[in-house]
Every structure is written in structure tokens, then in C-alpha cells.
Structure to design on (541 residues):
């Protein structure tokens, strides 16, 4: 017998071990391949509607990357087959190609299209839906899962199981699980325990789709299943009611921020000067038209700056409307101090003049003001839908409020304005030029109205009548919150905005506004100075 040295034996053992490792690596490191689709392709070449329908179902569940292209080609009438040999091809502009490799056929045989009837068309739609469930695009998979949940098609159950076994995205997996549960709930031959478990999964979603699915529980279900469905429906309805109230509060905050922007300039003008400025709405309108002019110029000369259009329009609108305000105060208002009715009539006439001037320059029709990309889109928090535009307007309103508060607290003009507000005669005796303060105050209030118009151009029609929509509500906010008090204006705007949106679902938009007006009138009867009354000159008056 031949003897093998220990050193050689070790070398042979190492080689054998390496060979085994390589073999294991070849077996286990290869990715999972899709199911072979040669059999479904052969069925497509039989020229039988039943075979074509069966082949589509097999292709949809195969997981083959070529399946989507084959189904799409059949839907477009570009799938053909040859009788000898029996083979399927894709017809392209360059000729026939192999459906698996997409390589051109060197010697193309005589072919005819795979026939399609209504049953096959329905099978194509079903196959596309199944393929969507395993699409590489998560958004498409989510859309397909939602569609299956609504249709509750029992035939989609194998496809759902296949998609669930492969899904890694948590959001899509939840949608797939919900779709499967919605099918199981109504599938014949399912135990009550499985149905109740499916009802629990659907009820946990807590949205309108889940509610619609639960309301479709079969009438012949057992009492236990019906009770579970009723409990889940009641829970969803409670949850939706809470989310609906939260949505209305959000809408109220959004409306309140708009009212705050429109009223905050009026608050300081009315508080310092005691002027009933009916042209305040037209300052808002001028700010909106300033935004339109800026965007029109940017579209013409430098479209790349469009996303900066609102940022550019804010200081321009403030300066332009502020200058108009100073001119109005110096030429008209300063002769009417102490005569509230005359200021009301004079500013109302000015508002008509400004409206007609805008009609003459820009025409009576609405003007388009676009939204920058950073103000477009929306997102959800639970069942709460939040649009980016409204969110930015709320943030902008808060920033304007803080900036105005800082101006009044930390600047010389702010100190002089507060002094004139509290006691005009004492301020004048201390050397404060009250006439100058009045002009600056009117200009500041008008400038703030102008930047309010920049924001409102994003949510309302830019037309000569824009300001008329907000002037009454602005006065209501100022009077309710307390004349001349910024914190009162903030609380008043948010309170009226939220109350308005909470009343609308029950009383309607018109009756809700009327009810709110009556409530404010009754409140003013008890507190004539509003929520936060100023002390000083207003008491002397």
C-alpha cells in the first residue's frame, strides 16, 4: 500500500477544504433567481384565450424582470408568436426580439399577434396590478396595495402574499397587510378568529379607507365578527371626529394668521391715531399687486430667481405701501384728527380711488401670482393634512408680529409711538414731535398691510377688490382684541379664526360668520374696550 506523508496529507486536506468552501459559496452566495417563465411563454403561443389568461397569471407571480415587458407588449398588441417553432417574440420598430434577452432575432419566422378578448384584457389588468405590487418603485407598490384594499379582490391574495414576503418598506408593508386583511374579512371558508384578527388590523389603521372596508363586512358573518366590526367602526369614527376637530383648529390657525397679518397694521394705526382707516384693505391689495409686478419682472428678465420672488417682494411692498401711507397721512388725514366720521368717509373715498387706479393700470381681472417651489406641496401628520403654503404663512405672521413687537419695544420710534398712544398731550410737552410720529405710524401700519398682501397673494385672488374681503374682519379683530394692543390683536385674530372654522361645519360659512359677529357684539357690550384694554389717552378720550 502506498504511504502518504503527513505534509502531503495536510496539503490534500487543505485543498479539499478549499474546494468544499468554494462549492458552498457557489451554492449559497448566489442571489435567488426568479421563477422560470418558459412554460407561461409556451402557453402564450398556443393561440388559446384560456391558455393566454393562465399564462398572464403565472407571469404576474413569477417575479421575472421580463414579465412586466411581456404583459405591457400584450396590452399594446406587440406580442406575437410563431407556429413553427412555437415561440413568442416582441415586435419592435427594429424587428422581432427575444422577450427574455431582448436580443434581435436573426432569422425571423412568420408570426401573428397573440389574440386578446375581454377576459384576456381583464387578466392583463390583474397582471399589471400584481406586477405593481412587486414594482421597484415604493410609491407604485403603495398605490397598488391601496387599490387592492379597496377592491378586495380575492384573486389578488397570492400576489399579496408574494409581495409581503419580499417587502422591506414599513409603510408599504403596512398597506399590504391592510389589503390582505380586507380580503380575508370577506373570503369564504375563513374562520371567525381569522376574520376578527383581520378586523383588528383594519381597525388599527383608523382612516376613511379602513372605515369603508369595515362597513363591507358580509351580512352573513357570525355575531362575534359583526360585534368586532361594530366596535372597530365606533373606534374609527371617534378617532376621525377628533382628527376632524384638529383639522378645523388647523384651518382656524391658518385663517387667524391671515387675519393677524391684515389687522396688525390697522391695530397700531387705530390705536395711536384714532383714525378709522377704510383704505387699509387697499394697502393689502397694493402689496399683492407689488408681488405680481415683481414676479412678472422676474419671469421676463431672470426666471431663475422665481423662487426668491416673495423674498424680494416683501421689502418692496413694505416700502411702497408705507410711502403711500405717509402721503395719505400728510395730504388728508392730518387735517381730520379728532373727527372720526370724517376720517372714515375720507379714507373710504381714498379706497375707491386706489381701486379704480389699479383697475385702470392692471385691468379688472384677477392677476396670477405663482407659488415658489418651497411653498408648494403638503404633508400629513396622522390624519391631519398640512399644506406648505399655509404653514409658511403662519410662520410669516408670527415673524411679522415679533418684528413689530421688537420695533415698538426696542426702538426710539417705538417708544415715541407708545408715548403718544398713552398720552398725546404729555408726549408733546416732552418734546416728541407728534405730527412726525403720526406720519411714521401711518406709514408703518400701511407697510405692514403691504407685506400682508404679499402673503395673501398666495392664497387669494389678486384683484382690485382683494382688500374689501378683509377690512371688516380686520376691524372686528382689532375691536375684539383691544384697540392698539398687539397681544390683543394676536389673541383676537386666532380666537376668531378658530371659532369661525369650528362653527362652519354646523352652521355653514355664512351663518357661521353671522353667529360669530353676534357673539362679538354681545362681548363688546360687556367689555367695550376689548380683551386687552389700553390705558392712557384712550381713557381721556
Amino acid at each position: 500500500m502506498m504511504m502518504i506523508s503527513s505534509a502531503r496529507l495536510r496539503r490534500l486536506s487543505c485543498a479539499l477544504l478549499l474546494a468544499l468552501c468554494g462549492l458552498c459559496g457557489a451554492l449559497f452566495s448566489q442571489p435567488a433567481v426568479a421563477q422560470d417563465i418558459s412554460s407561461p411563454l409556451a402557453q402564450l403561443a398556443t393561440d388559446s384565450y384560456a391558455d393566454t389568461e393562465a399564462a398572464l397569471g403565472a407571469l404576474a407571480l413569477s417575479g421575472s424582470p421580463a414579465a412586466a415587458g411581456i404583459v405591457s407588449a400584450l396590452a399594446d398588441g406587440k406580442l406575437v408568436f410563431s407556429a413553427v417553432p412555437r415561440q413568442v417574440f416582441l415586435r419592435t420598430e427594429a424587428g422581432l426580439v427575444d422577450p427574455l434577452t431582448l436580443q434581435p432575432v436573426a432569422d425571423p419566422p412568420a408570426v401573428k399577434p397573440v389574440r386578446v378578448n375581454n377576459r384576456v384584457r381583464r387578466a392583463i389588468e390583474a397582471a399589471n396590478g400584481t406586477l405593481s405590487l412587486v414594482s421597484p418603485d415604493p410609491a407604485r407598490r403603495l398605490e397598488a396595495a391601496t387599490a387592492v384594499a379597496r377592491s378586495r379582490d380575492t384573486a389578488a391574495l397570492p400576489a399579496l402574499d408574494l409581495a409581503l414576503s419580499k417587502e422591506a418598506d414599513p409603510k408599504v408593508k403596512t398597506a399590504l397587510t391592510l389589503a390582505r386583511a380586507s380580503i380575508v374579512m370577506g373570503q369564504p371558508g375563513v374562520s371567525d378568529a381569522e376574520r376578527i384578527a383581520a378586523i383588528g388590523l383594519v381597525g388599527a389603521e383608523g382612516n376613511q379607507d379602513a372605515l369603508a372596508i369595515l362597513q363591507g363586512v358580509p351580512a352573513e358573518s357570525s355575531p362575534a365578527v359583526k360585534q368586532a366590526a361594530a366596535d372597530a367602526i365606533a373606534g374609527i369614527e371617534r378617532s376621525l371626529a377628533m382628527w376632524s376637530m384638529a383639522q378645523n383648529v388647523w384651518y382656524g390657525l391658518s385663517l387667524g394668521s391671515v387675519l393677524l397679518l391684515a389687522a396688525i397694521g390697522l391695530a397700531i394705526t387705530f390705536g395711536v391715531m384714532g383714525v378709522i382707516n377704510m383704505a387699509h384693505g387697499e394697502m393689502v391689495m397694493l402689496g399683492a399687486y407689488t408681488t405680481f409686478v415683481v414676479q412678472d419682472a422676474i419671469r421676463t428678465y431672470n426666471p431663475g430667481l422665481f423662487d426668491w420672488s416673495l423674498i424680494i417682494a416683501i421689502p418692496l411692498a413694505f416700502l411702497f405701501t408705507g410711502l403711500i401711507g405717509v402721503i395719505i397721512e400728510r395730504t388728508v388725514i392730518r387735517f381730520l384728527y379728532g373727527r372720526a366720521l370724517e376720517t372714515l368717509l375720507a379714507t373710504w373715498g381714498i379706497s375707491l380711488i386706489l381701486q379704480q387706479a389699479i383697475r385702470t393700470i392692471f385691468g379688472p381681472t384677477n392677476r396670477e401670482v405663482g407659488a415658489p417651489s418651497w411653498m408648494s406641496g403638503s404633508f400629513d401628520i396622522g390624519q391631519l393634512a398640512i399644506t406648505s403654503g399655509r404653514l409658511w404663512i403662519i410662520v410669516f405672521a408670527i415673524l411679522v408680529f415679533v418684528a413689530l413687537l421688537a420695533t415698538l419695544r426696542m426702538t426710539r420710534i417705538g417708544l415715541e409711538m407708545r408715548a403718544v398712544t398713552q398720552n398725546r398731550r404729555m408726549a408733546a410737552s416732552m418734546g416728541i414731535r407728534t405730527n412726525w410720529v403720526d406720519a411714521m405710524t401711518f406709514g408703518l401700519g400701511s407697510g405692514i398691510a403691504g407685506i400682508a398682501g404679499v402673503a395673501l397673494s398666495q392664497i387669494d385672488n389678486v384683484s382690485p377688490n382683494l382688500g374689501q374681503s378683509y377690512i371688516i374682519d380686520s376691524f372686528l379683530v382689532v375691536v375684539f382684541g383691544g384697540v392698539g394692543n398687539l397681544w390683543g390683536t394676536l389673541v383676537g385674530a386666532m380666537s376668531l379664526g378658530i371659532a369661525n372654522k369650528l362653527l362652519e361645519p354646523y352652521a355653514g360659512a355664512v351663518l357661521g360668520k353671522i353667529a360669530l359677529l353676534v357673539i362679538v357684539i354681545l362681548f363688546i357690550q360687556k367689555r367695550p374696550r376689548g380683551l386687552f384694554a389700553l390705558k392712557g389717552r384712550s381713557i381721556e378720550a
About this structure: The CA atoms of residues 43 and 51 lie 5 Å apart.
